[in-house]
Amino acid sequence: MEIHIIIIVVCVFLSAYFSATETAFSTYNRIRVKNMAEKGNKKAALALKLSDNYDSLISTILIGNNIVNILASSMGALVCANLIQNKDFASAVNTAVLTVVILIFGEISPKTMAKNNSETFVLFSAPIINVLRIVLFPLIFVFNGWQKLLAKIFKKSEDQGMTEEELISIIEEAEEDGDIDKEESDLIKSAIEFGDLEVGDIFTPRIDITALPVGASKDTVAKVFAESGYSRLPVYDESIDNIVGILYYKDFYAVAYKANVPLHEIIKPVIYVAITQPVNELMKELQEKQLHMAVVTDEFGSTAGIVTLEDILEEIVGEIWDEHDEIVEEIKEVGEKEYVVSGKANIENLFSELDLDQEIESVTVGGWAMEVLGKIPEVGDSFEEYGLAVEVTEMDGRRVESVHVCDRRDEESNEENNDGKNDED
Fold this sequence. Notes:
This protein has 4 domains: 2-153, no CATH class; 164-196, no CATH class; 199-317, Roll (CBS-domain); 331-412, Uridine Diphospho-n-acetylenolpyruvylglucosamine Reductase, domain 3, CATH 3.30.465.10. Helices cover 56% and strands 15% of the residues. It is built from 16 helices and 12 strands. It has helices at residues 2-27, 30-38, 42-52, 54-83, 87-116, 118-135, 137-153, 164-176, 182-193, 218-228, 249-256, 279-289, 309-317, 347-353, 365-373, 409-424, and strands at 204-205, 212-213, 232-236, 243-248, 271-274, 293-297, 303-308, 331-335, 338-342, 382-385, 388-396, 399-407. The strands form 3 sheets. A 5-stranded antiparallel beta sheet has the order 8-9-12-11-10, covered by helices on one side. A 4-stranded mixed beta sheet has the order 1-7-6-5. Strands 2-3-4 form a 3-stranded mixed beta sheet. The longest helix is centred in the first third of the chain and has 30 residues, at 54-83. The N and C termini lie far apart (70 Å).
């Protein structure tokens, strides 16, 4: 009987090994192990090879686990039969005891430990599983054939691959687990979402363009460069709707400023893009043509604004401030759930800051205010939408300069709950 107990202990230990191996190979960080393999770790390379043939790997684990569990149950039955005369009671005791023992020591405990140390256990287990895979090859061959037959009978739908939302969820989980910090997470998510952006989401509108007429004097050009702080300025002929090129600061002072050279001879070519063009396509075009600026046109062919390579890069890395830029905080928290927001601020950035999942046609906060109010706003105009109380606090001509936003969603939720309770009463 002692030998039977020893066999049971060994079987429970092996059950724990197989359970831990299954969990480890299901949860380990493949990228981390791949980096180890590239640095010459042979166990890591073997683990990746086993993972690539996952059907064979899981068959090896399941066959081994079932063999040791059945053997443990058989040995337990013999032990209980020797100790207990009543066969039915002995069988019940064997089932109850082994179920508890295998669940605790053969399943739950090893799987928990393997999940917390998955890479370490994968490297430890890979050589052993590889040997077992060779030993159990005949059985594995039969089971793999059965799996292929089932796969043909029950065909799965076409694999759509990983969606953008799933990829972002993985990044957020990595941030929560501490594998990457918030800045790295934001950078990766910005790069992932970059392909969804259109020129209309990032361009500088027509009203904010600083441009020069093609016949401007040298003193005028020098003054505009000095006051704006820009290193490149659009040059137009007759009207801003006919931009003919881009004047570079260095070209102006190196060539035209001290010589009698007209602007049209030193300006660089300009490209025109639609407001709906994807930003990633525009960036590629600017890189190929070695340009830093494009003119954005609307549906009527008029100039809607301009977009620069810097505007594009800021969508990935965040705001880029140079020594000439006036640093502006577009969304400033001034109290509990109260914000002062620039009218130029992107509406998606505001909704993201407030954790509000809404989609609207307007691009800027000022455009949103005009859309909701249905007119050109005036200072003091206000509205409520999506649980936000918005008041126009500053105007610049016909443009919204800033608004005050108060998040009242919690208040509305409390009011609804109170109304519900009153109705029940």
